């Protein structure tokens, strides 16, 4: 199909429209910045023009994505004899749901092993796995009291327990087709392919998809376009990964993190030593000497690392030297303790009437024990090693920097030179959230995870990726910033209608001459790129969920910079089964009220001859547009869950 | 993969490995190292003389072994590594944490 005349002419038309959209958009935005800013009202003019610039960049990145959006030719048949592990990840899903997925996984045609990765560590799940005859994996004891890293941790733990060359990853609700491996393993004949992602679609979605669960634009033209630039993302489920590629990532990260950790700990060491010297209440010469020895060992370690010696040997020698110092102290400490106890005992015998003093003396003895004041130092020294004792496993193949481990991992795979594939065929069918609260929680988590990756590993500055690959990742991150633009788009008409302040300094004719062609081409671009898939709901949600997007940015920044947990401000998770969930969209409701009030004021101003007719008309159209955008939330809040209508079930192709 | 452990005194154990150290045998090596450390030998040498294949999972198992040895106050070093293995260690940067020695019997001669 990709080579067909229809495909070729479609892509040609698409590219012409992309080019025209960008030219017209550029013309518009240059005019806006250079010739039509109302500086007298800069406080609204500047935010609005920034929002418009944001949107133009968003469209440009979209245009670049779909520039190469084409279906792939069919892959070669799956080679025989590959080892495949099928992982079903679960945390709190019901046993029946996981069993259902596991049965379908067992029925996958290509030979494989099936595993349930139960992060909830539930006895009934273990029994279910046993009854089905599939493997059952929970976290090893190494994870106790260490960061668990959510799903990435669950998968990393399972990677250590299994040995398949390839891994099919399925969320607990994603029921696979028996063909899923036969249809995809052929791509791995190319030894540089590390990932094959297939679409995610959902079977429990009512007509009209009120919660916007299906993502046919993303799991279609967008992923195909990213694929065209060798930047198709890993999306967490319904994907096949090459173990060797993941392990290589884990190894490379391990070395660089060890080096960084050791460097950080060594640079903290002097301060910790100084504190230990000050807190050495007894002023014991033994402790002072020990601290000096340790200080020398640390200086020597720093010098050797600076001279280019390897971190493995340097830390080994450091640990040995410090152990020797500690050993010496323990011996001295014990003998001192023995002596003191003997003294106390003899004192007791001499003056048994004064026995009340004894417990206090013992406590004093412990406090001035040389070892006690060394605890903080020993803790620091422990961290100057290559064993990553702060983590459950030294090797973490799936990235743990974000709650969206999938995007972070595929970015690292691309940076390491691996290829990815988007295979556009529905090979699994899952369950989408059925109420607004759950849906909003899920969107927030995706957005937060994406922002964590942007802040921690900004794709624009990652080495190893092509410019196009960087822009493909950046494009998705950029789209999550739309919440800020939405404020300007909702605020500007309200301000004009209420106060008559126009952010644009131009006649209506001048404005429309430049703006309308852009608007028309922009919508044309979405229509052509969508290939019959409606993109309107997506456009609505990208503005209507603006409070979620903004919260994602602020909470991810607070998490990365100040270590605050992501769910810091999350409200009660109890599902409201009674009535529509209006409380979740209070802010948007307030915006609608403000838009309506502004409309009334605008009309009133017009009636009294204060308002300017053309401006008022334009802004009224704008208000209608804003309200239509926000109206997507009404059916969403009223949605009471999926009820199958006819026998119209989504049957996936077998 | 075949593994034989030789105790050479002073807490030093040499693990002679034979065959492919890959995703299939990684767990086996990891368990052997854990058992050896648990039995009181934390200064380990993995003898690579008869290892004819090594992949990232195998390297992962070596790192797990290194962690176990370090936490018991010892180390894990590699002996008789081929040029190919040395190249892999270099490319993955693992040469910085996994020390290689020429002779297994003198791997801990200097402590």
Automatic annotation (TrEMBL), chain A:
The keyword Glycosyltransferase applies. Mn(2+) binds at residues 151, 171. Keywords: Glycosyltransferase, Membrane, Transferase, Transmembrane, Transmembrane helix. GO terms for cellular component: endomembrane system; plasma membrane. One of its GO terms (biological process) is cellulose biosynthetic process. It is found in: Endomembrane system. It is a multi-pass membrane protein. One of its GO terms (molecular function) is cellulose synthase (UDP-forming) activity. It comes from the Bacteria. The chain crosses the membrane at residues 12-30, 42-62, 480-505, 511-529, 541-562, 582-604, 616-637. This is Glycosyltransferase. It comes from Galbitalea soli. The lineage of its organism: Bacteria, Bacillati, Actinomycetota, Actinomycetes, Micrococcales.
TrEMBL record, chain B:
InterPro entries: Anti-sigma_ant (IPR003658), STAS_dom (IPR002645), STAS_dom_sf (IPR036513). GO terms for molecular function: anti-sigma factor antagonist activity. Transmembrane segments: none annotated. Residues 10-111 form the STAS domain. SUPFAM superfamilies: SpoIIaa-like. Pfam families: STAS. CDD domains: STAS_anti-anti-sigma_factors. Belongs to the anti-sigma-factor antagonist family. This is Anti-sigma factor antagonist. It comes from Galbitalea soli. The lineage of its organism: Bacteria, Bacillati, Actinomycetota, Actinomycetes, Micrococcales.
């Amino acid at each position: 199909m990709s080579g067909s005349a229809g495909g070729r002419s479609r892509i040609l038309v698409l590219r012409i429209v992309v080019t025209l959209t960008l030219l017209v958009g550029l013309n518009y935005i240059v005019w806006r910045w250079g010739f039509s800013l109302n500086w007298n009202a800069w406080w609204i003019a500047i935010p609005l023009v920034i929002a418009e610039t944001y949107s133009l960049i968003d469209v440009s990145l979209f245009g670049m994505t779909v520039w190469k959006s084409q279906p792939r030719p069919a892959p070669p048949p799956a080679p025989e004899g590959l080892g495949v592990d099928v992982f079903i990840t679960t945390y709190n899903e019901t046993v029946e749901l996981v069993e259902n997925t596991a049965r379908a996984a067992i029925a996958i045609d290509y030979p494989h092993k099936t595993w349930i990765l139960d992060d909830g560590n539930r006895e009934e799940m273990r029994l279910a796995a046993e009854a089905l005859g599939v493997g059952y994996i929970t976290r090893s004891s190494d994870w106790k009291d260490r960061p668990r890293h959510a799903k990435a941790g669950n998968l990393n733990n399972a990677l250590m327990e299994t040995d398949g060359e390839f891994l099919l990853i399925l969320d607990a609700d994603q029921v696979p087709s028996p063909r899923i491996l036969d249809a995809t393993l052929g791509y791995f004949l190319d030894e540089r392919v590390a990932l094959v992602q297939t679409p995610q679609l959902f079977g429990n979605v009512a007509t009209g998809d009120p919660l916007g669960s299906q993502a046919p634009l993303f799991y279609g033209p967008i992923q195909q376009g990213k694929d065209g630039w060798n930047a198709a993302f890993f999306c967490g489920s319904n994907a096949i990964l090459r173990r060797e590629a993941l392990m290589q990532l884990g190894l490379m990260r391990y070395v660089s993190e060890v080096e960084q950790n050791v460097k950080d700990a060594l640079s903290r060491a002097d301060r910790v030593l100084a504190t230990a010297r000050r807190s050495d209440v007894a002023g014991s010469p033994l402790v002072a000497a020990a601290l000096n020895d340790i200080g020398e060992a640390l200086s020597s370690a720093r010098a050797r690392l600076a001279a280019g010696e390897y971190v493995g040997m340097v830390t080994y020698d450091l640990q040995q030297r410090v152990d020797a110092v500690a050993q010496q102290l323990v011996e001295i400490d014990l003998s001192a303790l023995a002596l003191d106890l003997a003294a106390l005992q003899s004192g007791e015998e001499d003056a048994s009437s004064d026995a009340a003093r004894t417990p206090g003396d013992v406590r004093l003895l412990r406090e001035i024990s040389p070892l006690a004041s060394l605890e903080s130092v020993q803790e620091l020294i422990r961290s100057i090693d290559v064993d990553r004792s702060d983590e459950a496993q030294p090797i973490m193949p799936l990235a743990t920097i974000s709650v969206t481990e999938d995007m972070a991992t595929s970015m690292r795979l691309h940076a390491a030179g691996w290829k990815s594939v988007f295979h556009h065929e529905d090979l699994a069918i899952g369950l989408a959230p059925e109420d607004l609260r759950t849906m909003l929680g899920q969107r927030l988590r995706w957005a937060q995870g994406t922002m964590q990756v942007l802040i921690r590993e900004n794709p624009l500055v990652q080495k190893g990726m092509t410019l196009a690959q960087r822009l493909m990742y950046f494009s998705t991150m950029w789209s999550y910033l739309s919440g800020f633009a939405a404020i300007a788009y909702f605020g500007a008409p309200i301000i004009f209608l209420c106060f008559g302040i126009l952010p644009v300094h131009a006649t209506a004719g001048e404005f429309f001459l430049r703006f309308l062609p852009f608007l028309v081409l922009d919508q044309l671009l979405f229509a052509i790129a969508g290939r019959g898939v409606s993109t309107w709901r997506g456009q609505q949600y990208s503005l209507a969920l603006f409070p979620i997007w903004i919260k994602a940015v602020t909470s991810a920044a607070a998490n990365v910079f100040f270590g605050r947990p992501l769910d810091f401000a999350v409200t009660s998770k109890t599902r409201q089964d009674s009535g529509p969930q209006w409380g979740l969209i209070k802010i948007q409701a307030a915006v609608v009220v403000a838009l309506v009030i502004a409309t009334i004021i605008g009309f009133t101003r017009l009636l009294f001859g204060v308002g300017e007719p053309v401006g008022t008309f334009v802004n009224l159209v704008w208000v209608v547009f804003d309200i239509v955008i926000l109206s997507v939330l009404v059916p969403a809040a009223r949605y009471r869950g999926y009820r199958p209508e006819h026998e119209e079930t989504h049957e996936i192709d077998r | 993969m075949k593994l034989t452990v030789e105790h050479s005194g002073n807490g030093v154990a040499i693990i002679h490995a034979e065959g492919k150290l890959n995703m299939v045998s990684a767990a086996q090596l990891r368990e052997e190292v854990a058992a050896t450390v648990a039995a009181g030998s934390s200064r380990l040498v993995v003898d690579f003389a008869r290892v004819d294949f090594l992949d990232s999972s195998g390297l992962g198992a070596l790192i797990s072994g290194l962690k176990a040895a370090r936490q018991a106050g010892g180390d894990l070093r590699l002996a008789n590594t081929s040029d190919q293995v040395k190249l892999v260690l270099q490319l993955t940067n693992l040469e910085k944490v996994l020390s290689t020695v020429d002779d297994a019997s003198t791997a801990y001669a200097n402590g």
